[in-house]
Amino acid sequence: VIRPEPCGVCGSRIRFGKTAIKCCQCQLLLHTKCQEQCPSLCTPRPHHHAWPREGVLADFAPSTPPLVPTLVVQCVTEVETRGLTETGLYRVPGAEQLVREWKRKLLRAGGALPALSSVTDIHVVCGVLKDFLRGLKEPLGEGTASPLQLLPGAATDIPDDAASDTALRHVVSKLPPANRDTLAFLMLHLLRVSHSPDCKMDVLNLSRVFGPTLVGHSSANPTPLAIMEDTPRQCKVVARLLSLPPNFWRGFVQTEQENLVPV
Length: 263
Hints:
9 helices; globular; 263 residues; single chain; two-stranded antiparallel ribbon; Phosphatidylinositol 3-kinase, Chain A; mainly alpha
C-alpha cells in the first residue's frame, strides 16, 4: 500500500507499506486477515467508497460567501482554540476509531454540527479535518475549472520566484469558488500553526502532511510509481502556497475567522 486507504471489510485504515488484497473486478481493498470475511460475490462500487456522503467540496459549502464548509470552519476553530500549544499538530495521528466516528457524526449532522469541545484529544479533530479533505472526490487544489497540472506547474516549473508567484495567484483565483475560499481559509490557518513555536510544525513539515491531501496527481488514475513521483511536487506546491502573503488569502475569505464560526 502506497496511499493508505480503509479496508472494505473492517473499515480500519491499511497503512503505508503494508500488504493488502485488492479485487481486480470490483476494486475492493482489504487486509489479508479480513479475506475470510469478504463477501463471496463482487458488487461494483465507486472508487471513493470509504465514507458515506462524500462529494466535491461545493456539496458541503454554504450558499453565501465565503464558501467554506461548516465542518472545516469548526475543526479549524477548535484547533486554534486549544491546539496551538500541541507538539506535532497535524503530524501526530489521532485515534483512528475516534476520527472515523466523529467524521461520520459530523457528516450525518449536516449544517447543525455537534460541539467538538467534547473531543478530548485535539489530534482527533485534526484527523477529522484531514480525512474529510482526503475523502473528497476531487482534491482541494483541483476542480472542474482547474486542470490537474496547473497548480504543480505554476509552483514548480517556473524558475523565477516572482513569475511563479504571479502564476500561482492566477491559478488559485481560477479555482472553483468553494475550493478557492476553503484553500484560502486553510492557508491562513496553517500559517498560524507554522508560527506557533510549541507546535514545531514549520512550513516544510506542514507541506509534507498536506501536499498529497490538497494537490491532485499528474493523471486521473495514478499508478503507485506515479504517486511516489508526485509526492515531492505536491509538497512543493503547498510550500509555495504558504509562501504567498496572508493578505492574498484574506482577500478571498473577506472576513476574520471569528466571523466564520458557526453560531
